Amino acid sequence: MSQYSFGAGVLYGRSLTNTPATPVRFGALQDVSVDIAFTTKQLFGSYQFPLAIGRGTAKVTGKANYAQINAQSFNDLFFGLSNPATGETKTAVNEAQTVTANIVTATHNTGVYVQDLGVVKASDGSIYTRVTGTPVGQQYSCNETTGVYTFNSTQNAVAVLISYQWTDAANGKLITMTNQLLGNAPQFIAVFTSTFNSKQITLTLNACMSNKLTLATKLEDFMIPSFDFEAFCDASNTLGTLSIDE
């Protein structure tokens, strides 16, 4: 009996590099595509159409778009670094402050403040210029050890918006993207499955490697990370399996 497939299906990845490997699911999967393409060579004689066609090398490529952002999947399947560390670098965007006695102190300052990302005036959005010396006019200096911003006395009682990065050591995950030697990349097993009308199709690719990760945003829409990968044969010279209920 004929079999059909409907919807985005389910996609899993499991590292072949880390031991033991934590399987990860591509959450809120939007779509998956797997292309198996061969090169061909045509043999021609005196006529327009080929006498024979030979199949050459093959290439297996895949792409998944999914909405749930997961540090484990990024790390294990793309970057291939040590497990993500506990803690994260966060960004304070336009934190409301008022200049008092020439200074403003970031809410997240001592011990966790990382770096300044700018200051604007709350009333009109005009930009303050950062300087290393004593500020004049609409200027400021910033001590990136203490998270203290210093302004000119003419800015006292002025409402400002400050932006900066700070470290939350207790929450989230942090992936430090270090420079790796050429050729170094994580390998993983990819398992795609889809069920419709109680019939299931499952594609397992025994050895995969990702070559592109895209993080793209859009106004009035969700971020949908895009994950590109290629598949190749494992040590037993097997690409994988395709299982169908038909």
Task: Please write the string of helix (H) and strand (E) elements.
Answer: EEEEHEEEEEEEEEEE
Overall CATH architecture of the largest domain: Roll
Largest sheet: 8 strands, antiparallel
Net shape: elongated
List segments where confidence is low: pLDDT < 50 over at least 5 consecutive residues: none
Using only C-alpha atoms, the radius of gyration works out to 27 Å
- Helical content class: under 10%
Distance between the termini: 6 Å
Number of strands: 15
* Helix/sheet category: mainly beta
Q: Estimate nothing, just give the exact number of structural domains.
A: 2
Identify the CATH class of the largest domain. Mainly Beta
Count of discrete alpha- or pi-helical segments spanning 4 or more residues: 1
Q: What is the typical, i.e. mean, pLDDT? A: 94
Q: What percent strand?
A: over 45%
Q: Name the quaternary structure.
A: single chain
State the CATH topology of the largest domain: Pnp Oxidase, Chain A
Question: What does this protein structure show overall?
Answer:
- This protein is mainly β and 246 residues long.
- The protein has 2 domains: 145 residues, Pnp Oxidase, Chain A; 86 residues, no CATH class.
- Helix content is 4%, strand content 52%.
- It is built from 1 helix and 15 strands; from the N terminus they run E-E-E-E-H-E-E-E-E-E-E-E-E-E-E-E.
- Strands 1, 2, 3, 4, 12, 13, 14 and 15 form an 8-stranded antiparallel β-sheet that branches. The chain has a 4-stranded mixed β-sheet with strand order 6-10-9-8, with no helix packed on it.
- The longest helix is centred in the first third of the chain and has 9 residues.
- 18% of the residues are buried.
- The mean pLDDT is 94.
